[in-house]
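We store sequence, tokenised fold; for instance:
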Amino acid sequence: MEITGERTRVEGKFEKQIVEKEKPRLEMSSRRRWAVTAGVMTGMFIAALEATVVGTAMPTVIASLGGLNHYSWVFSAYLVTSTVTVPVWGKLSDLYGRRLLYQIGIIIFLIGTMLSGMSGSMTQLIIFRAVQGLGAGALVPLGMTIIGDIFTLQERAKMQAYFSGVWGLSSVVGPIVGGFITDQISWRWVFFINIPVGIAAALIIGFALKEPKYHEKPSIDYAGAGLLMIAISLLMLATVEGGTSLTTLFSPDNVLIFAAAFILLLVFVLVEKKAADPLIPFKLFKNRTVSVSVTAGFLAGVAMFGAISFIPLFAQGALGSTATEAGSLLTPLMLSWVLMSVVGGRLLLKVGYRSISIVGFVILTAGFIFLALFQRETARFWLYLDLVLIGAGLGLTMLTLLIAVQQAVERTQLGIATSLNQFSRAIGGAFGVAIMGAFLTAGLAAQLNHAAQSGNAFLTVEQAAEFASNPNALIDPQAKANLPVETLDILQEAMAASIHRVFWVGAILSGLALLIAFFLPRQDESEKHATDGDAGEKMLMAEQTMINKRNQPSATNN
């Protein structure tokens, strides 16, 4: 592609045609753009890193603060608050601007980070992790929104791929950094290390990002925001706490919480329909690209979090790997994710987001099917290959669905649209892990009970019930060493069969996402706007140009 002045020459398959050069939604100098990019990437990196380093430090934290029975809440508190606030941050950024809201998000995140490192009890740590999550809810969606503002479609397709690399890098180095800091310094510095980095990110964004001033007084949908946050909090709490088994998930207390959450969601919908400026404009979902992308993103979130959560458990509990070996299994998945994000970004304008999404979900579904068929005696090479497939599928689909949503809306709705994409993925992940965890627990109990009742001399009914309720013997090296080899083999076989059910759930949901991806609009539906073979690129550029002309704000720069 040759760029000359304000025009772009597109090399088509059959002819050459001059089309108008696309402009970013928010124009600025090249130096400022790259400074903003550095600030956004830094903010996203500390948010992504925090999600991985804390897990490594938690055994030491428990030894220092106690509170083993509240262990899961250290993660749940962060997950809930960082998820429920995503659409609120997105909407507020549409009203008040990205810079202000991004800086506020970083400040809240850093306050929670500092207080977490100063915690004197497990209760304090849980509360401060919730505060940290409130700020983290802004960093990723608003970071992606800012990139959507300052780069053209062609540039954004490449840039978003590099941002996927931030997540991959954090997933690989996070456990290593967390372990080193915990062993060599103190678990408290797992939190403190983020403070200077976060301050630098906030300052860079403050100085480099200049936005137009809008003189209209924004209207904030307080009722809608409150209802949505309470409803989603209840849903996630019921899901996280009930995900230990099917019995717990559908217990009377949990069903009541689910019912209350759904009632609040219905009230939220009614309130939004009457709101002058709703938190989530439901007219967005009339746009087929948005509705299909958000739905497919929800299912992709189930697959992503399911893979990250249960593959290490499969390695330790079924294959007998060490914790280090199990953690390293995610490395090929993440590296493949990053690589295919870059490849997908470069192919996006040539083949269109619909085709890339379909190919990505085909690969993702195949990866889960192969995992579900993987046997304990199969060579580890094939397991690594499966993980490469899953990473490739996630890399192609996550990037493409995000750009499809951003490309389908006006700048005034870019914040909430991007946030909905991230929100649906996070909610899908929470529900996916809970449902898969419940299937795992139920399957393990059934497998062990069947083995015990079949007259196996190495496993009694009482032992089967004990191992089903507390399968730590499959993970704890000392506990495994104390078990007879025959008993350990029975337990590992039961764990393998149970996790296979989880992987089949992932395969089915990925396949469903594949079917949904076929409903994404075809780029060639508007091929009449272009006359050469590269219709996808020109159509997208033409659509973006129309959006830019329609949405130039009558504003002055800061």
Residues 1-21, 524-558 have pLDDT under 50 and may be disordered. The chain has three domains: 22-215, 221-276, 287-539. The longest strand covers residues 7-11.
